[in-house]
Amino acid sequence: VLRNWVARPWTEGNNELINSLATEFPNVTVAWWDTLAPECQGNCYAAADGYHLSADGADYYTALIRDWAGV
User: Fold this and answer.
1) Which contacts of 37-40 are long-range, i.e. CB under 8 A and separated by 24 or more positions?
2) In a 3-state reduction of DSSP, which class is residue 4?
3) In whole angstroms, how far apart are CA 13 and each of 4, 16, 17, 19?
């Protein structure tokens, strides 16, 4: 489950809930998107809101998911 990376009032609470899932469900892995998202190289967040992914961002996100999944 990916943690949130967005400047919104609900982000911290959602991330705490996401963190708790791994304790409750042993088959859940928490991915720290909020830590990794800022490391994306290129024009990753080209949408007007600065959070939604551009093509570069989608490629980065896909590569992270593949790496986590071992694909």
Assistant:
1) 37/5, 38/5
2) coil
3) 10, 5, 6, 10
> What is the maximum span of the chain, computed from C-alpha positions, in angstroms?
38
Kindly report, residue by residue over 7-38, the tens digit of the pLDDT: 889 999 999 999 999 999 999 989 988 888 88
Q: Does the predicted TM-score (pTM) go above 0.85?
A: no
Beta bridge partners of 2: 31
The whole-angstrom separation of Cα 15 and Cα 2 is 9
Count how many residues are written for the chain.
71
Give start and end residues of each alpha helix (H) in 1-71: 11-24, 33-36, 55-69
Take residue 32 and report the two structure tokens written for it. Answer: 């720290």
